[in-house]
């Protein structure tokens, strides 16, 4: 990916040709829609038993991340728990999947098609050489001087290969979890989620927005791909800030980090100073997909207020977050020689150091927050138990296997051996995680597949 980055940057400098983002987000209308909006308020907690609050977070990392996340979904499908005397797949207890970059391909596909993902996602995406097709378009000389951005080529490819013209209205499956596809606002460095709450800030209707374009935004590596551009409409039936923003401003007053986020989001309401937003890779602001979960609950005023709004006050007895972290830590080749590292190696090392530090800080924030949220929700009559399941290649004990996974590149072209290994790693890491095992033990009657 770094070689692609350097070559793409070189082509960008050579071309010197301006390109313009295609605007594909419709203006919000005063006419009511036949279906509820694709929003956190409407969709969180609409499925499952209510006793379990299960959230998944899929990291970035190209096809590596998509395959690891797919393996975790398979393991949840094959694990049966007994709730109210009835057997249920743990997969069916998922309330939310928050994803960035490569992980968004898996989350969006599952959100649209449900169990169909286990029939064709591997053949349709994981084992396809998507990178080669992107190369053909990216390095086509006719495109170098086109006013149409390089990302449009990726959007068309994702439409044809995976999403087939689907919009967020098609994500409204009755048995689907809420899918939070996350990108980054390039201008203000704030996370942007493809839910109606965020589109309200743009005075735009998410229901007609293509899923392929949202996934392209979530995975648009800056410079290699153009941002996905959305219009911030000036005329709006929503007067002032949306209600949830007004409440969040008051509730977050004592949290400087949340105040900064709110200030950035408030720029969308400045209709005289902002006409567009430029959305790029979600991994820039949150490579694990976890900060989206944290911010949603904190901006709602904490878990009690959040569940009062989304579950009519029904708090889960068991709250679990499963973080599927596909980031790697390969051995640096530069340390085997006194040759000066290349530009690509230098950029890669600098990015890797910052990424791992930010990931560590995010995981620590999430662990502390879950402890705080559990205490806030628990009562003597109804105690809440929380579980933070943190999956990553560092948990693989065999050094040789760990090196194998850490050597898998961030790309959209992996070998069948790598894909199969990643899928099996998703099963293995989840099944062997002690916090996950404790969750199954506390639920009682869990049936785990033998592999």
Q: Which features would summarize this protein structure in a list?
A:
single chain, alpha/beta, about 45% helix, globular
Could you describe the 3D structure shown?
This protein has 451 residues and is α/β, with parallel strands linked by helices. The protein has 18 helices and 12 strands. The strands form 3 sheets. Strands 2, 5, 6, 7, 9, 10, 11 and 12 form an 8-stranded mixed β-sheet that branches. It starts with a helix and ends in an 8-residue tail after the last helix. The mean pLDDT is 85.
Mean pLDDT: 85
Task: Name the shape in a single word.
Answer: globular
Structural class: alpha/beta
**How many runs of DSSP E, i.e. beta strands?**
12
Q: Major sheet, described briefly?
A: 8 strands, mixed
- Structural Rg: 22 Å
Number of helices: 18
Q: Topology of this structure?
A:
Elements: H1 2-15, E1 26-27, H2 40-43, E2 52-58, H3 62-78, E3 80-83, E4 86-89, E5 94-100, H4 102-113, H5 117-126, H6 130-138, H7 141-144, H8 150-163, E6 178-185, E7 190-193, H9 196-201, E8 204-205, H10 211-218, E9 228-231, H11 243-251, H12 256-266, E10 276-280, H13 290-299, H14 303-310, E11 318-324, H15 343-377, E12 385-391, H16 399-406, H17 416-432, H18 434-443
Parallel strand pairs: 2-5, 2-11, 5-6, 11-12
Antiparallel strand pairs: 1-8, 3-4, 6-7, 6-10, 9-10
